[in-house]
Amino acid sequence: MAGGFRRLALSSFLLVGLGTAAHAAEPIKVKVFVGAMFEIGKNTGDRAGEFQNWYERYWQASEPIAVKGAPNPVHCNADGVCGAVLGMGKVSSSASMQAILLNPQFDLSQAYFIISGVAGTPPSRGTIGEVNWASWVVDYDLGHRWAPEENKAGEPTFMPRKGYEAVRLFQMNPALVNWAMKLTADTPLKDSDSAKAYRQRYPQEAARRAPFVGTGTHMTGDTFFHGPGMSEQAQYIAKLYGADDYVITEMEAAAITLVIKRSLGSDRVMSLRGAVNFDQGNPNETTLQHLDPKPGETAGGFAETVENVATVGARMTDHIVAHWDQWQAGVPAP
Q: Would you indicate the residue range of the signal peptide (predicted)?
């Protein structure tokens, strides 16, 4: 009898232990995932890159979660907000995102994704310090491109290549973009004296504006293109594909969106960028001078812009988490 009791007790103990192990292995249910592209130094306490302001807001008390195939760990808080530094460029960032999506430690099936970082903007459309939600994301590279001197004057030097239609253009969920603007358009944004002075070098009204929250097409390319010719080409591609005006140049959003779309769909994907430079010089400088400015001749406003991005993105993040019963099943009606 005593032996039977011991066997019963041991069986119960094992069952409880197995249940605890199974519970411990349950994946983290992610509500919002924030993907930044780079950080400068540490995640906190030094000069901030794209991730630090997010980290200090949400993950100071978190334990890093290593993910095979991703160069940096994922951080999560108790509210289901997770984030990571994915790496710069289309290949690195999308490879990291794929590794995280496939990792069994996370349940991302109902997550909203914020692709967050800095960017450039044409002076005819934006300004230093602005924050922009993508209405469309376009891949800048999928086609044929040749030197202007090998073409008729004034004609485009880019031709789309057939077969890329499904991977070169993504419309962000209009209902989600509308929510983002509704919740963040009036966010107070920081500015800097150096950025204010730098803007005055440009004659365009948009370039001289104070920082604001807006929307438009984000152009994804691995090349840091500069100059009015390349800017015009980006606008040409955006219009050729039927997207909105090109307002942001960045390096990752199209690739990351494609990876998420193939696994989960793209209805919950957002691209959020802050402009830290113009995509061309002012009328008094050449493109090379703009690319390689003298000391003290840079745009300024970087620290303020990365903080602006996180401040705007946090408004969206906090609303989703606070009203998860309304957002869990999908983007709610306005």
A: 1-24
